[in-house]
Design brief:
The chain has helices spanning about 5, 10-35, 55-70, 85-105. By secondary structure, it is mainly α. The radius of gyration is 20 Å and the shape is extended.
């Protein structure tokens, strides 16, 4: 990744921005769905934040939105071709391709993860086979 800085500092800065924005969006999306659409149907596990869970979730959503905006801003002023931050273009392109792939193809066959644990505690620990 560092070799791109030899050819173009703009490409390197965009790559660093995308490398920061991507995981934030990845970890933020389940939180967004939890505090919005799954608010009533979500079953909390053994560790939960109780009545503060919704508040902490919204704070996390606000933080992800803030970081996404900050890392999408240009790195220098005035904005020119050599100071433009291309991270929003890259993230937007990946988002467009992902949503397009879901709408046109994956929603017809993808049914979610397959459960391979029956919940009885009878399954051997990972790495051990009988």
């Amino acid at each position: 990744m560092a070799l791109t800085s030899l050819g173009s500092l703009v490409a390197f800065q965009a790559m660093l921005s995308v490398a920061t924005i991507g995981p934030y969006i990845d970890y933020g999306l389940p939180i967004v769905f939890r505090v919005t659409t799954a608010r009533r149907s979500f079953v909390p596990g053994p560790f939960n934040l109780g009545r503060y869970g919704l508040l902490v979730g919204w704070v996390a959503v606000a933080w992800v939105a803030t970081v996404t905006v900050l890392f999408s801003l240009p790195v220098a002023h005035p904005v020119a071709e050599d100071t433009f931050n291309y991270a929003p273009v890259i993230v937007g392109g990946v988002l467009l391709l992902s949503v397009g792939s879901w709408v046109l193809h994956a929603r017809f066959w993808f049914r979610g993860p397959i459960t391979n644990v029956d919940g009885s505690g009878e399954n051997p620990p990972l790495g051990f086979h009988s």
